[in-house]
């Protein structure tokens, strides 16, 4: 692992060397919101050779939540029959007509929590009030949502449910690569998700799509190291999965976390913003846990809803549009007045480009 400024310079020179050896344009994609922020914050784009391009993929769980599901969450808050507990990013995401922030201002009981278990504790503290936790997240977060459901049953809480909105990264990446809409020459795999699912989870589509993959940490030098590895693989004609985050990521992942997840959830179809419905990409409550299904209990459904007028979040998430190329970027759409979720989330590509790219004139 690169850990000093001198080593980072060595990596930059190595990147230039392998980019020259590749002798063709290369497009690499990162699919983790934390990587997205690190790349913009540390100016990594400015270090890339002319023939290497880095784009962002569907790595932000709030961002990929479709408009119809945002409306479903807002409808739940608007009913007023439950306290809605959610992670902070979700509060300001605009729905078609409102947001959780706006509904809270109108009197809805919306509370920000830092863990699903905080929502369980809230339900226990408010026995006369129903608490719904908004279970948005990838494989990193969903095991904690499963643990919260298990704990709620252990405590015999009848006033706790979740809106199951978890998603699985590998099927979404497979669908994106299979679409043929965009040529991707290498993938920086998400570090946090990989801790749970393991690096071997990427082998099937790395082989299927002949795609170099590198699991990376989050320090700027670790991201740069992953870029070097991908460009080197491209130059050498390889398509392997390299684990550059071995201090945390194992081949099989975190078996205990996966067992907890799989005991409560089952893979099923799920709609992604910009990608549509992808089979086995969602994490749905198993039938034996259906008593904890807020959508069923409160009769709120997810419908297919169009993006806000002019919003290109879906195109940004597919990697076919840079944030700054959206006509609304930094004009009608800013962090203070967002039109789409990619400008709201702390892991959103548009938020990262606005905060750091504009400062550097990118």
Largest sheet: 6 strands, mixed
**What's the CATH first level of the domain at 62-169 and 253-298?**
Alpha Beta
Helix content: 25-40%
Q: Any idea what the CATH architecture of the domain at 62-169 and 253-298 is? A: 3-Layer(aba) Sandwich
Characteristic terms for this protein:
362 residues, alpha/beta, six-stranded mixed β-sheet, five-stranded parallel β-sheet, 15 helices, globular
Briefly, what is this?
The protein has 15 helices and eleven strands. With 362 residues, the chain is of the alpha/beta class.
Describe the overall structure.
By secondary structure, the chain is α/β, with parallel strands linked by helices. The protein is 39% helix and 17% strand. A six-stranded mixed sheet has the order 4-3-5-6-11-10, sandwiched between helices. A five-stranded parallel sheet has the order 2-1-7-8-9. Strand 3, helix 5 and strand 4 form a beta-alpha-beta unit. Helix 1 packs parallel to helix 11, helix 2 runs parallel beside helix 15 and helix 6 packs parallel to helix 7. The two termini are 28 Å apart. The model has no long low-confidence stretch (mean pLDDT 95).
């Amino acid at each position: 692992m690169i850990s000093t400024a001198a080593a980072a310079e060595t990596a930059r020179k190595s990147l230039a060397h392998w980019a020259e050896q590749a002798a063709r344009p290369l497009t690499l994609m990162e699919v983790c919101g934390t990587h997205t922020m690190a790349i913009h914050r540390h100016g990594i784009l400015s270090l890339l050779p002319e023939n290497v391009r880095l784009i962002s993929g569907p790595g932000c769980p709030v961002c990929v939540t479709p408009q119809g599901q945002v409306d479903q969450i807002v409808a739940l808050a608007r009913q007023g029959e439950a306290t809605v507990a959610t992670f902070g990013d979700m509060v300001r995401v605009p729905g078609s007509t409102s947001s959780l922030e706006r509904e809270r201002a109108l009197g809805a009981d919306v509370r920000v929590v830092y863990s699903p278990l905080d929502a369980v504790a809230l339900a226990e503290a408010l026995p006369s009030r129903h608490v719904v936790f908004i279970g948005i997240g990838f494989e990193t977060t969903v095991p904690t949502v499963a643990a919260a459901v298990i704990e709620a049953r252990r405590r015999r809480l009848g006033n706790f449910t979740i809106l199951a909105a978890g998603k699985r990264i590998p099927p979404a990446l497979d669908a994106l690569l299979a679409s043929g809409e965009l040529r991707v020459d290498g993938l920086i795999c998400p570090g946090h998700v990989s801790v749970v699912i393991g690096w071997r989870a990427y082998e099937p589509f790395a082989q299927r799509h002949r795609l170099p993959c590198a699991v990376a940490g989050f320090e700027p030098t670790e991201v740069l190291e992953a870029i070097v590895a991908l460009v080197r693989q491209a130059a050498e004609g390889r398509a392997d999965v390299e684990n550059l985050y071995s201090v945390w990521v194992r081949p099989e992942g975190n078996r205990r976390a996966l067992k907890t997840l799989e005991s409560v959830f089952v893979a099923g179809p799920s709609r992604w913003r910009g990608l549509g419905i992808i089979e086995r990409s969602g994490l749905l409550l198993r039938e034996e846990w259906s008593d904890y299904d807020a959508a069923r209990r409160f009769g709120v459904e997810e419908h297919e809803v169009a993006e806000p007028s002019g919003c290109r979040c879906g195109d940004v998430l597919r990697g076919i549009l840079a944030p700054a190329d959206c006509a609304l970027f930094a004009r009608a759409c800013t962090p203070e007045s967002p039109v789409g979720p990619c400008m709201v989330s702390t892991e959103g590509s548009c938020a990262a480009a606005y905060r750091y790219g504009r400062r550097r004139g990118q």
